[in-house]
């Protein structure tokens, strides 16, 4: 009996696979055009549970917490379901009596990597179910395939980050560059949920249209964002959080000029910058709404979560996952 068949006949069900979310610290949108980005897996994520189900294979409809009283669109379940179907077909599990279930501490659709975390969690769960050994080098491509169901043609930064165990330097390439950044103090701060998130697909298309319509200006903005990500990688490696925070502020301004911020996100970052202990603030992810992040000085995070709690629908402390933790 081969390794695959062995695992499926074992009664190893149910089991759960953790799937962390991510934050883009620097470089969103510019990454699509080959510039570098910096992103971090975070200590907030999802769990994918696999159990025996005679009606399977199927995805049990996830109940994600909604922050703005909106009802979850049917299309959102179709995307999650489509990603599961693709994962099942990659692993030849189209007739398997299993159910997948998601539990999430990660606000969904806020630029915090929920689609990448879900894609990575599903791929890892199906691999575990089949007893798939090794093949780590193909896992990125598999996750990227599932992520593409949500985002069309993602740069790969989200997929790379949710599979990483430390802050990452990412460049789409070719050749693709994915490098952990050695950081003396893992960055920590606040995630502030501000308003309903925008569609990554639409925002990436909008930037592409703007680039076609006003090439000189938009190309310049994307280049400056890439340059900031590059400098931030060096500053983070040197443990210089104060200058890293300043670069975050500048990165936000450039994203606003790119047209992916909103008045609410601008107001949120301005409010955060006024707080003692906040080193910098920016939107995170594709923009058009969603969340902003603030980098906080060591020891200030929890006081700030409390003092800002009534300013946002939700304030969550984050710490970048770091391999040496
Ligand atoms: O999926 P989001 O909202 O976290 O944003 C992805 C980051 C982009 O740079 C906007 C797109 C990409 O593929 O890099």
In terms of topology, how is this protein built?
Blueprint (H helix, E strand, L loop, with lengths): L2 H7 L5 E12 L10 E16 L5 E2 L14 H17 L7 E7 L9 H17 L5 H16 L5 H6 L5 E4 L5 E4 L7 E8 L4 H14 L1 H23 L3 H18 L4 H11 L4 E6 L6 E7 L4 H8 L5 E6 L6
Parallel strand pairs: 3-4
Antiparallel strand pairs: 1-2, 2-4, 2-5, 5-6, 7-9, 7-10, 8-9
Helix pairs in contact: 2-3, 2-4, 3-4, 6-7, 7-8
Bound molecules: (3R)-3-hydroxy-3-methyl-5-(phosphonooxy)pentanoic acid.
Please explain how this structure is put together:
- The protein has 325 residues and is of the alpha+beta class.
- Helices cover 42% and strands 22% of the residues.
- Helix 2 (74-90) packs parallel to helix 3 (114-130) and helix 2 runs antiparallel to helix 4 (136-151).
- The protein binds (3R)-3-hydroxy-3-methyl-5-(phosphonooxy)pentanoic acid.
Overall 3D shape: globular
Biggest β-sheet, characterized?
A: 6 strands, mixed
Small ligands present: (3R)-3-hydroxy-3-methyl-5-(phosphonooxy)pentanoic acid
* Radius of gyration over C-alpha positions, nearest whole angstrom: 20 Å
* Helix count, DSSP H or I runs of 4 or more residues: 10
- By helix and strand content, what is the structural category? alpha+beta
H-E string: HEEEHEHHHEEEHHHHEEHE
Question: How confident overall, as mean pLDDT?
Answer: 92
Question: In total, how many beta strands?
Answer: 10
Flag low-confidence runs: 1-6
């Amino acid at each position: 009996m081969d390794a695959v068949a062995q695992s499926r006949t074992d009664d190893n069900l149910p089991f759960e696979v953790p799937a962390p979310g991510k934050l883009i610290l620097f470089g969103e949108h510019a990454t699509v055009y080959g510039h570098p980005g910096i992103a971090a897996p975070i200590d907030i994520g999802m769990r994918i549970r696999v159990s025996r189900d005679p009606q399977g294979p199927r995805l049990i409809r996830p109940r994600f917490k909604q922050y703005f009283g909106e009802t979850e669109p049917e299309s959102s379940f179709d995307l999650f379901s489509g990603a599961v179907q693709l994962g099942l077909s990659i692993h030849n599990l189209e007739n398997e009596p299993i159910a997948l279930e998601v539990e999430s501490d990660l606000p969904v659709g806020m630029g915090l990597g929920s689609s990448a975390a879900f894609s990575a969690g599903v791929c890892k769960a199906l691999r575990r179910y089949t007893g798939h050994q090794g093949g780590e080098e193909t896992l990125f491509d598999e996750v990227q395939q599932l992520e593409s169901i949500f985002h069309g043609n993602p740069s790969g930064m989200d997929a790379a980050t949710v599979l990483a165990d430390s802050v990452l330097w990412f460049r789409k390439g070719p050749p693709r560059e994915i490098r952990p950044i050695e950081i003396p103090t893992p960055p920590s701060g606040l995630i502030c949920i501000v308003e309903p998130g925008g569609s990554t697909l639409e925002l990436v298309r909008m930037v592409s249209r703007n680039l076609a319509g006003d090439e000189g200006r938009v190309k310049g903005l994307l280049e400056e964002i890439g340059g900031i990500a590059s400098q931030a990688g060096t500053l983070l490696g040197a443990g210089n959080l104060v200058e890293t925070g300043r670069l975050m502020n500048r990165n936000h301004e450039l994203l606003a000029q790119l047209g992916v911020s909103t008045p609410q996100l601008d107001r949120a970052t301005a409010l955060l910058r006024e707080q003692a202990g906040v080193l910098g603030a920016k939107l995170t992810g594709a923009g058009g709404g969603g969340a902003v992040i603030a980098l906080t000085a060591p020891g200030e995070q929890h006081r700030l979560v409390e003092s800002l709690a009534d300013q946002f629908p939700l304030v969550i402390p984050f710490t970048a996952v770091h391999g040496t933790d």
